[in-house]
Amino acid sequence: SALGKRLAWDRLLSEIALVIPDEVSVSQIQGSSPAAAATAAPADGSPVTNLTIIGTTADQASVAEFMARLSVVRQLMAVRLESASESPNDPTRVAFTITGALRLGS
Question: What is the pTM assigned to this prediction?
Answer without folding.
Answer: 0.81
